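cache lookup: miss for this entity combination. No prior model stored, computing from scratch. Input as submitted by user K.M.:
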Amino acid sequence: MSKIIGSVEIGTSHSKALVGEVGENGSLRIIGMASRPNEGMRKGEINDFPKVASSVHAAIADAEKMSGTTIDSVYLAQSGSHLKGRMLHGSAYVSSSDNRVAVTDLERASEEAHRREADEGRNYVHFVRTPILLDGQVREDPVGMQGKKVDLSYWAIDGDEQAMRSSIHVISNYNIEVADLIVSSIASATMVAGPDLRRAGVLVIDLGAGVTDFVLYRQGFVAHSGVIPVGGDHVTGDLSMGLRILERYAEKLKLEHGKAAPDPTDEKQEVWMVGDRTIGDRSVSRKAITDVIHVRIVELFEIIHKELGELLSPEDLKGGILLTGGGSQLPGIEQVASKVLGLPVSKAGFPAGISPELAQPENATVLGLLHYGLQDHGLPGQSKTAHQTGFFGKIAEMVGIKP
Amino acid sequence: MMNKDKKKTTPSTWRDLLPQSPRRPASKTASRKRFLNLTKSFFILLLLAALGSGAWWMSRSDFKEEILSWNRMDPPISRVTFESDGALDHYWFQNWFGPLRGRSLMQIDIEELQSELSKEPQIAHARVSRLFPSTLEVRVIEETPVLVLRLGKRGGGFQDWMVSSNGDLYQGTRYSPNAVSLLPSLSISPKQLKIDPAGKGYRRLEGIAAVTPLLELARREYPAIYRDWKVVSYANPEETGPGSYVKVVAGKVRNLRFSPTNYAAQMKRLQYLLLEPDFRRQPVVESIDLSHDRSVFAKL
C-alpha cells in the first residue's frame, strides 16, 4: 500500500508545501505542490505568527487539494541564523571476546556522542553522522569486523528553542504532525548533490530570500553547515536604498536586469524602473544595479569563506561548489562565488525524473525534505523506526501494527 | 529557564518542543480544517449510532415477525419433542401450545415461547430450540412440590395446591394422585393466604423457604420418618426466637416440633429417639419437642 507524506518549507519570501506518494517499492511520486507568498518572516525566522500560519496553511491546503488527498504529517525545513553546528564525538571499546564489532558497540559510541546537552534555551535539530572509525580507520559498516575501538562523530545542529517552537507550532496548528525537522541546507544538498558528489566533497550553497544556507560534505558526510543571515531580500534592500526606489521596483529590477558580476557591456545601458515610461517611471543605469548587487554578493561569499576557512581546500572538495535556491538564478553569480571562494562553482541541477516545473532551484529544499526524510540515517545494522501518524496510525501503533 | 544537566543521556531535541495540546487555529484555513474534521467526526459518530440503532431494531421481536413472514417457504414443523424432568408431558405441551397449523420453524418466535413457558408456575426453566429442517425441541425443568395445600371449595369438595420450595402455590398439572398423596399437607391460618391481585391464584407464601430444607433433608436422608409425616405447619420460621418453630403431625408422633435452625442435628436426634426401645414399643407418641437446643422433651 502506498503512503502519503508531505514536506513544508517556511521560506522568507514563500511558503512551500509538497505532497508525495511513496510506492511499495519505495519510489517517490510528487502528487501535489503549492507555494504561497509569506510576509511574516524575517531572515528565516518567524516575525508575525498569524501571517506565517495563514501562508503555510494555505500552501498545505492547496497542495492537498491538488493531490486529492490529505496529509497527517510533514517533514519540516528549519533554517535561520540561530542555527549553530558543532561536532560531537563518542567512542566505545569493542565488548565481545573475539573483538568483533557489534551493533551494541556502535550504539554505546553513539550514546556517548549524544551526551552533550545543548546550551540553555537551545535544542538540537539534527544529528548528522560522520564516518565510523574502527581503530582510526574509516569503515562504512564495521559490524562484524575485528577491532578494539569504535569512534563515532555527529555534526550536531542546534537552534533557538523559541524559533523552532514557532515553526513547529505553525504545522501543529493545522492539525498535522511534524514527522521530522530537517535543516534546510541538508535537505537542499540531498536533492542537488548525489552520493558520488558528496563522496568527492562538495559545498552546497542555498541562496534564499532571507538567509543563505550552506553545507559542506567531505568523504560523503557532513563536515560543516551554517546559515548566513544574508539573502536575496538584502540585495533588494540595497538596490532600493542605493537607487532610491521603492522595494517592489528594486525587486523587479533585480529579477529582470540584475547581474552578480560587472559586465562591460552594461556601461552605458539604461533600464526603465516601471517600464511604461509615464509619469513616475524613470530610467536607472544598469551598471549601477550590477555594482550594488555585486558588492552584496561578494560580501556574502566572503562571509562563507571566512566561516569555512581551511575546510575550503580543493583536495577535499573535488566536487566543487554548487549553488541552488532562488538567488542562484542571478546571472554571473558562479563567477563571483568562484573568485571569492577559490573553487570551481556551478549551478546545481536536479536528478533525472523530476518534472521541469518542479526542478527549479527555489524548490530544492522542499523536494530534498521528502528525499532526506525517506532515507535511513540510522547506524549500520539498526532498523529504521517509523512513527505512525494520524488517528488510525496511532491506534495501529498502540495495538502493535507496523507501517 | 531550567538549568540543563550537561551529562544527561538524552539531550533536548526539537521533539521536546512539540505541543502537548491542540492550539486555537491561527488561520482561516486551519479553522476551516478543524471545522471539517469536527463535522467528519460528528458524521462518523452519527453513522455509528445509526448502525447501532439498526442492529437494535433488527433484534426487536417485531422485526423478527417480519423476518418470519419473509420465510413462508420453510417446510412446516413435522415434529415436536418435549422433555421434562417432572410430570408434564408431550400431551400437556400440545394442549398448551395449540395446533401448529402448518407453521414453519422460522415462524415460531422461540424467545417468546421460552418466556411464555417460563411464566407457567409449574415450570422453573424452559429452553426451546429449532432443529432444522422441521423439528421443534422443548425442554423444561419443573418446580418440585414440597407440600400440598388442600383448600375447600365453595360449592363443596376441595382443591389441591402444590407448594414449591420457594413458597409459590400452583395447581399441579398431570401429577399422579399417588405422588400427591405422598406429600405432607400444609396447615396454615387463612390470614397467611393472600389472593394474587393479578388473578392468578395466591401470592407466594412467606416462610416456606425456611421450612423446605427440613422437608428436603427428611425426604432425602430419613425417608422412613418422612413417609409418616402428614401435616406441616410453622410460625415465624425465618426468625430464631422461641416463638419460631416448624410443627409436623406424623402417624407415630402426633406432635413433632422443630426449631428452624440446624435441622440436621434435630433429625439425627429424632431418629435416635425413635429407635429407643421405649419409643419403639409405643404405637403412638404424644409429642417430641426438638426445638430446645441440646434437650429433647418427649411425651409418650
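stored under new cache key. The CA atoms of residues 136 and 212 of chain B lie 35 Å apart.
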